[in-house]
Amino acid sequence: MRSVTALVLAGGLAVLAACAAPSKPPTVSAPVVPRPQPEPPDTCGLRAVKGLVGQSRSAIPVPVNPQLRRVTCTRCVQAQDYNPRRLNIYYDADTGVIERVACG
User: Fold this and answer.
1) 51 phi and psi, to 5 degrees?
2) What is the C-alpha end-to-end distance of the chain, expressed in Å?
3) Residue 29: phi, psi to the nearest 5?
4) What's the DSSP call for residue 57?
5) pLDDT (0 to 100) of residue 12
6) Phi, psi (rounded to 5 degrees) for 37
């Protein structure tokens, strides 16, 4: 009698399993492609001097308007005033090699 009960129970479970909602296949999302960020406006002439990075500070051209250019070492103390039209050129104090250029 037990085997008949077990058989009926197993058959009932099989019927219930067949009635269950089918599992959904995993959704595959499209890869996220980063959008190119618009380049910020060149307010200080940065594009013209980007090539100076890696060169000696003696390669820095004489500015047309010295008030709009700051040349300083990366460890030097400087004023923190922000001027979007000013070009900042930072060089290593030990080697004299230009490390970065930035507006501000």
Assistant:
1) -70, -10
2) 90
3) -90, 150
4) G
5) 54
6) -80, 135
pLDDT tens digits, residue range 34-86?
Answer: 888 777 788 999 999 999 999 999 999 888 888 899 999 999 998 888 999 99
Amino acid at 71: V
50: closest CA among 79, 94, 92, 90? 90
Beta bridge partners of 88: 70, 102
Burial of 101: CB neighbours in 10 Å, binned 0-12, 13-18, 19+: buried
The greatest distance separating any two alpha carbons of the chain, rounded to the nearest whole angstrom, comes to 104
Helix ranges (H only) for 1-104 are 2-19, 46-49
Question: Rounded to two decimals, what is the model's pTM?
Answer: 0.61
**CATH numbers and ranges of domains, the chain:** 46-103 (3.30.10.10)
Residues in the chain, total: 104
Tokens of 77: 């103390």
